[in-house]
Design a protein that fits this description.
By secondary structure, this protein is an alpha+beta fold. It contains 23 helices and twelve strands. The protein has two domains: about 290 residues, no CATH class; about 180 residues, 2-Layer Sandwich (Alpha-Beta Plaits). About 40% of the residues lie in helices and about 10% in strands. The strands form six sheets. Strands 1-4 form a two-stranded antiparallel sheet. A two-stranded antiparallel ribbon has the order 2-3. A two-stranded antiparallel sheet has the order 5-6. Helix 7 packs across helix 10. The longest helix is centred in the first third of the chain and has 30 residues. It is elongated and about 100 Å long.
């Protein structure tokens, strides 16, 4: 019964958290966005004391149920391990804890977290929720979107508009490769050894594992009923049950409840662990177990290296956009910005870098396609803004609504219209008003805050070609001018980011 409840809750959490990264419409986040905000590290970085206290209390009561129910990466490993279990039954065995590796990775994570923004990429690589987010956003989401586009195609042929097509594109090659490597490592470890990643590499698992040793409720072996068959140990995905010694390593137990269902003698129960219940072998048990065979203390070889798969195929072969069927429209290129643009609500570049875990949730939900993971090593995988595919519309606050770590603070639509994240810069050499001697004014017409005015290029002649002039004090850096500028491949006007945001 307990296992059924655990599985049901795990499936619900896993399905909805995955959908948060797949739902490009953004409709699900208003209902299920809280599932991302109760993840351990994002809640800790967001200083969400209530959530952190709740997770700690949950662990002290019931053990590592966070790892078996709430954490999407843990449940994902269970899914892979389940498929492996169909080919080979009873494939696990007890192995001693690799404490040096567990606490070494925890120390590395802590140092990277407090050492400064230059090392936050290392912390993001180890954080479980963000690791799964990158897998879902970069690998699962394109497949989901292609499926949606296929449905939209057939629906349109049937004169139905129940679905609409969405563009599938690679937001960052480096983040895509990291997601592939993470998936391969997780899949290999889970396929071979179940929860090895959770109990050797994951820093959250190590912290909660330390707390779970003192949990009130936990699996307990009744030595009077145990016949030493070892079935529990051979089905323990955490490899934490020593059936010969009738001991359970509670720091590695993820409270999956599999051992309860597998034990045919009813010797394992999920209950309060009293000191009197400490394993003491009865005379009969001692006769069975007091054999000359020594307990195998050989440590399993840990996977030290994983082959990196070469990724050469693009996510989607896109058709060329043409102007009137005559000329190919050249795609815009990203300008060389001195300062990267970060979303409204981030407050500052430093605050954003300190709190962001690079989970890619804001990138997945952005309807304007302006957010994409950074390729800069100092801000690797953390989102930044660019306006080749769209611009940051003043009425959109999606990224601030979904951020679970406090990197992007919640803002209203009125707040966003007044937050200056950057300012526009005009490049005379690229402007078609100068190069082609034509009237344009596209940037001024579409500026939502009227920060761009068209003035005569020759102050002494009002009949001269008009050129844009930017009021940098009024500009909010939304990128409408950069996106809608007809100049190719570089826009004649682009946005330079600000290290500190301010209200205009």
């Amino acid at each position: 019964m307990l296992r059924t409840i655990r599985l049901t809750l795990a499936i619900v959490f896993f399905a909805f958290i995955t959908l948060l990264f797949l739902d490009f419409s953004g409709t699900l986040h208003s209902w299920m966005g809280w599932m991302a905000k109760i993840q351990f590290l994002p809640a800790l970085l967001a200083l969400n004391v209530g959530v952190v206290v709740l997770l700690v209390a949950l662990t002290l009561l019931f053990g590592r149920v966070y790892c078996s129910v709430i954490c999407p990466l843990g449940v994902f490993q269970d899914v892979i391990s389940r498929f492996a279990g169909k080919r080979k039954k009873n494939r696990f065995r007890y192995s001693p804890a690799l404490k040096w590796l567990r606490y070494g990775m925890l120390a590395l994570f802590a140092v990277a977290l407090v050492a400064g923004i230059r090392f936050h990429a290392v912390a993001s690589l180890l954080e479980p929720y963000s690791s799964y987010g990158r897998i879902a956003s970069n690998l699962f989401a394109p497949v989901y979107q292609w499926g949606n586009n296929l449905l939209a195609y057939w629906a349109e042929r049937a004169d139905s508009y129940a679905f609409y097509e969405t563009e599938v594109w690679m937001k960052s090659l480096s983040t895509f490769i990291i997601a592939v490597i993470t998936l391969v490592v997780l899949a290999v470890l889970a396929w071979r050894s179940g929860r090895t990643y959770c109990n050797t590499i994951c820093p959250v698992g190590t912290v909660l594992g330390f707390l779970s040793k003192y949990s009130l409720f936990k699996p307990v072996i009744d030595t009077t009923k145990c016949n030493g068959c070892g079935l529990c140990a051979r089905n323990c995905k955490a490899s934490c049950i020593n059936s010969k010694a009738h001991e359970i390593d509670y720091s590695r137990c993820v409270a999956c409840m599999d051992c309860l269902d597998k034990c045919k003698q009813g010797a394992i129960t999920y209950t309060r662990r009293h000191k009197s219940n400490a394993p003491k072998a009865s005379a009969q048990t001692q006769e069975k177990t007091s054999t000359p065979d020594s307990i195998d203390d050989t440590r399993r070889a840990f996977l030290s290296a994983t082959a990196v798969l070469a990724t050469t195929a693009a996510l989607k072969a896109q058709e060329k956009n043409v102007d009137g069927g005559l000329a190919v429209i050249e795609e815009k290129k990203i300008p060389a910005r001195a300062t990267a643009i970060i979303p409204p609500g981030a407050l500052s570049a430093r605050n954003f870098a300190q709190h962001c875990t690079a989970c890619q949730l804001c990138v997945s939900v952005c309807p304007n396609q302006v957010l994409r993971p950074s390729s800069d090593f100092m801000k690797l995988m953390q989102p930044e803004m660019s306006y080749e595919r769209g611009y940051c519309r003043p009425e959109c606050t999606k990224c601030s609504e979904v951020c679970p770590a406090g990197a992007i603070r919640p803002i209203t639509k009125a707040d966003k219209s007044a937050i200056q994240i950057g300012h526009a810069v005009w490049i005379k050499e690229n402007c078609i008003c100068i190069t082609d001697d034509v009237e344009c004014g596209n940037c001024a017409r579409h500026c939502p805050v009227s920060a761009i005015q068209m003035v005569a290029s020759d102050p002494e002649s009002q009949e001269s070609i008009k050129i844009p002039v930017v009021n940098t004090e009024r500009c909010i850096g939304c990128g409408a001018c950069e996106n809608l500028c007809p100049s190719r491949p570089f826009s004649a006007i682009y946005v330079e980011g600000h290290m500190m945001h301010r209200t205009v």
